[in-house]
Amino acid sequence: MTSPIRRRHLLDLACANLLAPGLALAQSSTARAALLNVSYDVSREFYKDFNTVFAAHWKKTTGQNVTLNQSHGGSSRQARSVADGLEADVITMNQHNDIDMLHTRGGLVPANWATRLPHNASPTTSISVILVRKGNPKNIRDWSDLGRSGTQVIIPNPKTSGNGRYTYLAAWGAGVNGGASHDAAKALVTRIFANVPVLDGGGRGATTTFAQRNLGDALVTFESEAPLITREFGDGFELVYPSRTILAENPVSVVDRVVDRRGTRKLAEAYLQYLYSPEGQEIAAKHSLRPRDPTVLTKYARQFPKVSTFTVDEVFGGWTKAQAEHFNDGGHYDQVILAAKGR
């Protein structure tokens, strides 16, 4: 049980976060509702634009002004903050495991939360890709190249970041999906993590390390992050699509305990449903998130090349099993890190 002092501290942290750049607020002198979206690290630009459009839609359809607040960080840290008392009306993550946590820790969402919206409650997807320096001087073409001696790879920490977990599973799963044994896949992942000089807490921190601090020969990140890096840091990078990669679903849910206590369920549900609207899907595509709407996806087909993908369910038996076997204490990831340090 979270103490009142602990909950107050978490809420103070949330307020500080909400006043930071990237906060989406709709100014009005009339009565307004408020909603907090707790999300993962690299989604802030998408939700900043989405919030503006949704606020206008909500005003037009209901006559009510709405304040839409954002909180961003490493996905698992964000989920734990909500479990510990951060009062999110909605949670928008990049893996199902982080929302499942809210059910197992306090029953903040029901066990069947992922069945309440289409496409496994995931309005968008992305894939794990490799970003390299201009000219690709290390000739990095696939996951195996990231395990070569003398190559530095920037990956966020899989213990705290969904981006990092997807990277780990992408490299492992690509091997298995291509016919390698799990032992061979684990050996490759060990070689890759032996080449990681620093494990940042989230995807945005890893981007800063690679693009601003100029550390590393390659950055593994979501496809949706690559154009943002180019816009912010220049065109000194190239995007490499591996021969096989993982499909990253971006699940969303209302936080039932919070919306029912605050009386914001109608607003929170409308907010998430609007992600599936043509307008929401267009904004997603413009931010390089792969839309579910086939019409919008066709419109942006040149932006999203067809690649061979696999899912966590297909290779690892689902997120619950992957978490238990790979990322819980003593799991395969801990073993990989210990072996990598010994190389």
Topology:
Elements: H1 4-18, E1 32-40, H2 44-62, E2 65-73, H3 75-83, E3 90-92, H4 96-104, H5 118-121, E4 124-133, E5 153-154, H6 162-177, H7 182-194, H8 203-212, E6 218-222, H9 226-233, E7 237-240, E8 244-250, E9 252-254, H10 256-262, H11 265-274, H12 278-286, E10 290-291, H13 294-299, E11 308-310, H14 312-316, H15 319-327, H16 332-341
Parallel strand pairs: 1-2, 1-3, 5-6, 8-11
Antiparallel strand pairs: 3-9, 4-6, 4-7, 4-8, 4-10
Helix pairs in contact: 2-12, 3-4, 6-7, 7-16
Specify the CATH homologous superfamily of the largest domain. Answer: Periplasmic binding protein-like II
The amount of beta strand, in percent, is 15-25%
Instruction: Examine the secondary-structure arrangement and name the CATH architecture of the largest domain.
Output: 3-Layer(aba) Sandwich
Query: Which shape, going by the Cα principal axes?
Result: globular
Largest sheet: 7 strands, mixed
Q: Output the CATH topology of the largest domain.
A: D-Maltodextrin-Binding Protein, domain 2
- Rg is 20 Å
Q: Structural class, judged by helices and strands? A: alpha/beta
Mean pLDDT: 90
Domain count: 2
Order of helices and strands: HEHEHEHHEEHHHEHEEEHHHEHEHHH
Q: Roughly what percent helix?
A: 40-55%
In CATH, what is the class of the largest domain?
Answer: Alpha Beta
| Low-confidence residue ranges | 1-30
CA-to-CA gap between the ends? 43 Å
The beta-strand count equals 11
Total of DSSP H or I helical runs spanning 4+ residues: 16
